[in-house]
Amino acid sequence: MKHVRAAEWAVLIGAIGILATLWQPWFSYAVTLEMFPPRDLVLTVTGWAGLGWLMVTLLVFSALLGIGLFFTFAMNAGDATTLPFGATLGAVAVPTLIALLVVLLSRPSLGVDLPASAVGIEPAGWIGAASAVLLTAGSLVSIRNERTDGPSRAYSPPPPRSAPPGDPTGPPPS
Questions:
Q1: Is residue 164 domain-resident?
Q2: Which candidate, 33, 43, 87, 156, has a CA 20 to 30 Å from the CA of 164?
Q3: 171 found inside a domain
């Protein structure tokens, strides 16, 4: 665990935050029923149901890549192991974050054709979006920050080759 940097911790926290909030209500719609006494009826939708299958797939894929990136760094794996996780996460996390913000701010109709202004965003939705920002930022810093002083990056050049037989200034051997 001593090889894990702050960027990888941010990726792990963001990945866990995304996966944890998908089970919580992301969107809600409240209506007051005109009766005596008046009652509030609240329709809530979890991240799994409200975001759509493509958005959920992208979020889960990004979170799993983030967890994989963290554990490869924690095991002090070499570049051949950490680079595929980091590069793929860096390529997937940015468009996933942009798509999530578009979906979150456009507020889905919750399957009952509600106007976007009537749909509220629950705290889990904001926490999920913040987790996606943390995951994306951590992944970009992780692949940018290349350290050369760690034991997994140690490089010792090969020993010098010996000189060829014979005098290099004299006539070639026959």
A1: no
A2: 156
A3: no
Spell out a b/e string for 102-119, using b for 16 or more CB atoms within 10 Å of the CB, else e: ebbeebbebeeebeeeeb
Residue in 40, 46, 41 with CA at minimum distance from that of residue 27: 46
Query: What are the two backbone dihedrals, phi and then psi, of residue 75, each rounded to the nearest 5 degrees?
Result: -85, 0
pLDDT interval class at 61 (50, 70, 90): very high
Q: Please, which residues have CB within 8 angstroms of residue 95's CB and are 6 or more apart in sequence?
A: 58
- Please state, in angstroms and rounded to a whole number, the distance separating the CA atoms of residues 69 and 66: 5
55 CB-near residues (< 8 Å, 6+ apart): 99, 100, 103
The pLDDT value recorded for residue 21 is: 92
Contact between residue 50 and residue 110 where contact means Cβ atoms under 8 Å apart: yes
Strand order in the sheet with 25-33: 39-46, 25-33, 120-121
Highest mean pLDDT (candidates 72-76, 81-85, 89-93, 157-161): 89-93
pLDDT tens by residue, 75-89:
877 767 777 888 888
Q: What CATH number does residue 47 fall under?
A: 1.20.140
Within-domain flag for 153: no
